[in-house]
Design goal:
globular; about 40% strand; about 0% helix; Galactose-bd-like_sf; secreted
């Protein structure tokens, strides 16, 4: 039984699958944001299984969960064919606000290292509607092959979403 949150009685599931993904500017039309929540963990970018942004200042990716969830973890799969270092310095942020595209929400984790072709789990005991991955640096590119957000619906808050 899932018990990280007081009163929780359900097992967490990948709630990102029912969400809506978006990202900062990308001219790669085949590598749109929703590629990172399509259940396809293929780490070869050229198989159209990853999302990517252009080189920009503070590139970001976000999933709107369309409701409030008690989030227990965020699982990220990194690119495997090249460029795995692009994820270094990425922050996972969770919250209910869209200020600065959601990048001002509370930080759950920072990815300080992550080898190619690897999936890591970041424990995030937080409540929120938006899950962002942002690299707060200049002239960077953000590539994500899969993002899974595990949590349970917060029934007492679902009708009061921001």
């Amino acid at each position: 039984m899932y018990s990280s949150f007081p009163g929780s009685t359900s097992n967490p599931s990948n709630v990102a699958l029912g969400g809506y993904a978006t990202q900062s500017v990308s001219s790669y039309t085949e590598h749109y944001a929703s590629r990172s929540i399509d259940r396809n963990k293929d780490t070869n970018f050229h198989n159209y299984s990853c999302s990517t942004t252009d080189y920009v200042d503070s590139p970001w990716w976000r999933v709107d969960l369309l409701g409030l969830y008690e989030i227990s973890s965020v699982v990220i799969t990194n690119r495997g064919d090249c460029c795995s270092e692009r994820i270094i310095g990425a922050e996972i942020r969770i919250g209910n606000a869209l200020d600065n595209n959601g990048n001002n929400n509370p930080r759950c984790a920072v990815i300080s290292s992550m080898p190619a072709n690897l999936t890591i789990t970041n424990a995030c005991t937080m409540i929120g509607r938006y899950v962002n991955v942002v690299i707060p640096e200049t002239n960077r590119i953000l590539t994500l092959c899969e993002v899974e957000v595990y949590g349970i619906a917060e029934p007492n808050l679902q009708n009061n979403c921001i």
